[in-house]
Amino acid sequence: MLKSDVMPSFEIEKIRKDFPILARQVHGKNLVYFDNAASAQKPKIVLDTLQNFYSQDYANVHRGVHYLSQISTDAFEKTRDALQVFIGAKHREEIIFTAGSTASINLVAQCFGEAFIGEGDEILVSGLEHHANLVPWQICAQKRKAVLRIMPMLATGELDMEKLPLLLTEKTKILAITATSNALGTITDLVNIIPLAHQVGAKVLVDGAQSIAHTKTDVQALDADFWVCSSHKLFGPTGVGVLYGKKDLLEAMPVYQSGGDMIKTVRYESSTYNELPHKFEAGTPNIADVIALGSALDYINNLDWHGAMAHEKTLHENLEKGLLGIQGLRIIGTAKHKAPLSSFVVEGVHNYDLGVLLDKMGIAIRTGHHCAEPIMDFFGVAGTARASLAFYNTQAEVDYFLESLKKAINMLR
User: So what's the pLDDT on residue 9?
Assistant: First the structure.
């Protein structure tokens, strides 16, 4: 058995009790949840916040003078303030609530594209992107008659940094790049990439959906122009996304959707639009889930972060050591710097079949192309099996997973 070197202040069993779902069984087996890259589980404080809000405090926000509306509005805006601090934004109005990372990227692709991208301009997208940070830019390029270019990757799953200076030109208007690949776990070198883009006047959108739960984010230190993430991968509810954008860029961009709250004045002849952040938040927002995201942030802020990340790192190192010891198994993505995520294929075994058998053993993993088909094409595979960890996972679960994986492989060969 591989030993976990956990910092003494990080009490894993105490942490696990905060997540009710981790105590359940699946097919008569204790649940082992290794699908955290798809969505993370929720601590009790988040579940309690949702229950309490709907049963005690519910009302619409920004529109009422009555008590419940004020309570709801204050809690809703408190999450915006918490996010400003959490990601290091300069202004609270730079935090826009959306339906998810996908919605945030689509907003930028449409509105930034309309304001700043014209015929013959270039959009650069890294070769590590989830479809959500590729397809919107394909559509933007088609609509704006721009050119879409791809920054290639190496056989390790790392981006080819030598090619970047050749791809960045005065025609490049924006670089869209992930902080961490959802398919491979690769952590990109944003510290060196973003300045190179800025040297030619290009703006940078960072997809932080996979990185937000595994590393501290400081958008000002990175000097990212746009940055996005989703609540559900940060131990909060589904249906909420975050868009950070530099204030001057957001102000220069046209509105995305129209309706209530995003307007200042409305006449039959024309309308004027609200100031940030409300300019990009049309209609009744996802109030309860935004407030519950605030509770998820409270939970994380009270967590021994360094202990949690050390725990994750050790678990992942032990997971990959175990995977490398399985005959016929190949890890897809061997970057030097990775998130706690392992994608792999097994010779002669289909990843879907592996996923089904592991499910019968109580283990939840992800199989398929992970909404990253070009990455799968690059490695010459139809899909992979992906095990992704969070700080509430344990060494015992890693050991059980490895034993179960060997059994499943033997059954399928």
Answer: 57
Q: Three-class SS of residue 17?
A: coil
Indicate the fold that domain 48-301 takes in CATH.
Aspartate Aminotransferase; domain 2 (3.40.640)
The predicted-structure confidence for 52-105, as pLDDT tens digits, reads as follows: 999 999 999 998 899 999 999 999 999 999 999 999 999 999 999 999 999 999
The catalytically annotated residue of 111, 140, 229, 371 is: 371
Residue 368's Cβ-side half-sphere holds a number of Cα atoms within 13 Å equal to: 9
Residue 6 has pLDDT above 70, yes or no: no
Here the contacts of 51-55 (C-beta below 8 Å, separation 24 or greater) are 53/287, 53/288, 53/291, 53/292, 54/288
Which CATH fold would you assign to the domain 12-43+304-412?
Aspartate Aminotransferase, domain 1 (3.90.1150)
pTM: 0.96
CA-based nearest residue to 187, from 215, 163, 164, 168: 215
Query: Active-site residue 371, yes or no?
Result: yes
Query: In a 3-state reduction of DSSP, which class is residue 340?
Result: coil
Those residues with Cβ within 8 angstroms of residue 288's Cβ, 6 or more apart along the chain or in another chain: 50, 53, 54, 58, 237
